[in-house]
Amino acid sequence: MLEKDGVPTQDDLASIAPSEERLAKGPVAIIECFQPIPCDPCYDWCKRGAIEKFRDPTDLPQIDYERCNGCSLCVIGCPGLAIFIVDQAYSEKRARVVLPYEFLPLPEEGEVVEALNRKGEKVGRAEVLKVQQTKQKTTLISLLVPQKLAMEVRFFRRGENG
Amino acid sequence: MREVEIAIVGGGPAGLSAAGIALQTGATALLIDDGQHLGGQLVKQTHKFFGSKEQYASTRGIEIARILEKGLEGHPHLEVWLNSSAVGYYPDGVLTVLKDERLVKVKPARLIIATGAAEKMLAFANNDLPGVYGAGAVQTLMNLYGVLPGRRALMVGAGNIGLIVSYQLLQAGVEVEAVVEAMPKVGGYWVHAAKLRRTGVPILTSYTVLAAEGREWVEGAIICPVDERFRPIKGKEQRIEVDLICLAVGLSPLSELLWQAGCKMKYISQLGGFAPLRDGNMETTVKGVYVAGDSAGVEEASTAMVEGRIAGLAAATSLGYRIADAQRLKEGLWAELEMLRRGPVGQKVREGVKTALINQDSDS
Amino acid sequence: MRIVQHPILTFARGKKISFTFDGRTLEGYEGEPIAAALHDAGVKVLRRSIRLSRPRGFFCAVGKCSSCLMKVDGKPNVRVCIEPLREGMRVETQRGKGELIERG
Asked: Which residues of C touch B130 (CB under 8 A)?
């Protein structure tokens, strides 16, 4: 539970998840923002108009999953590092998860790392597909994870070959 | 004796914003700060700020400091005194400043107090051991001077500062063993808690620190769960191996100058301690003395910037300086404050500010 | 210990200089607080408490708490968390309340 230990519940996650159909179609932003805090820059970062204009900055972001193409600009802009891209159409076996990363050293492309869930627990292995540094210093890391972990993996740890 | 139009004490987000708008109206200002640099605590903030565009949302604190400072750089109407402590304010309106080891007298027509806040302390055994550091101090050491404050840390407090500084410790390469929080809930933003948690750092609510261990410096800490009345649960004590205990148990307004000025003060727990009563211009009960930022009540840097602008605008216009649409501008700033304080997280501050605001109807 | 690489920050460090701490020669960067250079060198105990002689170190880093008072170039009660480091400074652990006139 977020307010107890920083981990969203299944209900929290269900409340923001796109439909299975939409997920199967390809990359989409998953905005794990559950608390009405005064914050709205994701609206300005989205160039496709997929994030609805905030009536009030303390509203939770509302995203139109049909307009979102998973471009990941909002991942760079979100002050809470709370947005991820999930692409379940990557391949039959593997999904692509893009996450914001603000640590050094950066992983290498092709490196196998430990895939961590929202509690920081190892849930499997991931392959680093892409490391994209940005002007904003939030690096976008694309991980390839088993399909069933697409909505689980939200961080990674470099380790002894994963 | 130096006579100045507006003296601003404190060069953090509030003071810089106050100076910015005052200069825009044509007023002259003297900005006094006891540090080596302007920007106050902003210069240590590596995270991106929340809020909206107007408050530099999505921009890191350190960048905001540069933007604010750049806006003032070389302004002919601005004088900046660094490494200078404003130490006294007297009934005849004289401000004394310790500068270059001398006491300098300044007589400002208007005074804006933007001195910020100080870290609160927590009582536990051996809390005086070296290695028990305030969260702000840890930030200074690692983010300003690039010195590691320790190797393995315990963070005490899961408010925004505790959560943010824990993340910053990880960014600097320090291991964070745990965050303990006596309250049953995380006080800071959930997104800060979530981004820390997914790196594997446990956030232990209803937990406290009972003791620091070590002879000459911290070598460990005893943590323990607490019951609903915050009493440690016997037999549940755990020892963790750390060389740094970082305290983020809240801030209280730095109000010495406000007391000296004779401003009417009130203990407002929601604002972190004694805070000055103030009106819609951020003017205190002492005419010509304004307040802004954490010294008016502990909040966020974003609200400090807006309060600074309100105070700076009011101080300058009260001296006869004009700016287009001043009234509209002021109303807009209050609307920004209202927005930033909205929602369940802002409830505490809203209550506190309501208690501190006076003369709301009379438009001064 | 210094932070070697940081994902967000770059550190603008001054000139590398030397100073002494209780007679030992140490290095630091010009202009940084004395306490930062000491911490880098692993010096955590900055003074002793007056009555019980308990170790005292860095704490607030803003010159407010008086935990870090030291003797610098013979001058007692210097707040080393905010006092800029200069070449050749003589930094010493202070015992007691500090005397302005050095005895004996």
From this structure: 44-46, 55-58
